[in-house]
Design brief:
Elements lengths: L1 H20 L1 E8 L8 E6 L9 E7 L4 E7 L4 E7 L12 E5 L2 E8 L2 E5 L2 H21 L9 H24 L4 H10 L5 H10 L2 H4 L2 H11 L13 E4 L4 E3 L9 E7 L4 H17 L4 E7 L4 H10 L5 E4 L4 H5 L7 E6 L4 E4 L3 H11 L2
Parallel strand pairs: 1-7, 11-12, 12-13
Antiparallel strand pairs: 1-4, 2-3, 2-5, 5-6, 7-8, 9-10, 9-13, 11-14, 14-15
GO molecular function: antioxidant activity; oxidoreductase activity
Keywords: Cytochrome c-type biogenesis, Disulfide bond, Redox-active center, Signal
Main location: other
Length: 361
């Protein structure tokens, strides 16, 4: 009997140590007490296509503070919000952190979130820093600043830093759920080579998923690049009718295809340059075909009207065009000559205007 009791106690000890090894605690803090008595929720999203987050834990905020405790078998993304994600409070940012063993700290300061306390959250905080800087910089840009080369260069630098930080973190964590989530949620911001690198670094279970196999096939397909003929695609016009890209390409001396969205701040900042260039060269043979990647048709239509975009406006409702042209980030532009050959890509601002002037002089 003593032997049985000893074995039972040993098993309990092993289980206890195992649980301790996977345990995390989260200490949350707000910069003021405005959310006191409200409920903070710790949530996870089970898949990138999930319509709803799953609540892991909740706690009432008191004196600007809250805390959670739990276990995680492997690092994964957690989301902290005042109120559940689908109806979170408007006056606070959503906190994204990595659930991993250790004492995690998360601080909300108005529009910023700061992480720390565990190795992956210390690293993930670098992404937060760049994102906070980028958000702060963009929020201060006025219409008069949109054409300022120094400001645009600073925003571009921050965007590149954010993309690279996210890529590096995803690659280091591609074998766990945190890295997988970043792969899916940030895939459009990664280059073709970066996506291939991430997939190569993943395990066979990840690589054998149907959507990853389909992506690999897509990445290996030759896309229209400089010197190659353009690819036709079906798109939605503003009246709701399906049209072909070939309805517009080859009809003018030069066609600029501009992939954009109403929510894309760099796209919006580029609109004054497009208006100026279009007005200067449309009589000389320039046509612009805007291809929106908006999910919300109303926001797309409103942006076209608000920003006075008078050129052809189409929507990539099926994502066919984005796939054909390998669009990973926006704005993304292509210049196509009257023979349907791509002659330049990703030109913006003065570079774009100079190239059009050179061709249509």
């Amino acid at each position: 009997m003593k032997k049985i009791i000893f074995l039972f106690l040993s098993a309990l000890a092993i289980l206890f140590v195992s649980c301790q090894g996977n345990s995390y605690s989260i200490e949350g803090k707000f910069s003021d007490n405005s959310f006191d008595t409200k409920v903070a929720y710790l949530q996870k999203i089970d898949s990138i296509n999930s319509q709803k987050a799953t609540v892991i834990d909740s706690a009432t905020i008191s004196d600007g503070k809250f805390s959670f405790k739990g276990t995680a078998d492997e690092p994964m993304m957690g989301f902290v919000s005042v109120g559940k994600l689908e109806n979170a409070e408007n006056d606070t940012p959503i906190g994204t952190l990595i659930l991993e063993p250790g004492n995690i700290k998360i601080t909300f300061d108005k529009t910023n979130v700061t992480l720390g306390g565990t190795p992956k959250n210390d690293e993930f905080n670098n992404i937060h820093k760049v994102m906070n800087s980028l958000t702060d910089k963009i929020s201060k840009i006025t219409p008069q600043d949109a054409n300022n080369p120094a400001i645009r260069a600073e925003v571009d630098t921050l965007q590149k830093q954010l993309q690279m930080s996210t890529f590096n973190f995803a690659k280091a964590n591609i074998s766990n759920k945190a890295g997988e989530f970043l792969f899916y949620s940030s895939a459009k911001s990664f280059s073709k080579d970066q996506l291939k690198e991430l997939i190569a670094a993943s395990d066979s279970t990840f690589r054998n998923r149907d959507e990853i196999k389909a992506l690999v096939k897509e990445l290996d397909r030759v896309k229209p690049e400089v010197g190659n003929p353009y690819s036709d695609a079906q798109l939605l016009d503003q009246s709701g009718q399906m049209v072909s890209l070939s309805d517009y390409v080859g009809k003018n001396k030069l066609v600029l295809i501009d992939f954009w969205a109403s929510w894309c701040q760099p796209c919006i900042q580029e609109i004054p340059n497009l208006i100026k260039t279009y007005n200067a060269y449309k009589s000389k043979g320039l046509e612009i075909v805007g291809i929106s990647v908006d999910d919300d048709k109303n926001k797309w239509a409103a942006a076209v009207q608000n920003y006075k975009m008078t050129w052809v406006q189409l929507a990539d409702a099926t994502t066919m065009a984005s796939q054909l042209y390998g669009v990973q980030s926006i704005p993304h532009t292509l210049l196509i000559d009257q023979n349907g050959v791509v002659i330049a890509t990703d030109l913006r601002g003065k570079e774009l205007e100079d190239k059009i002037a050179e061709i249509l002089k």
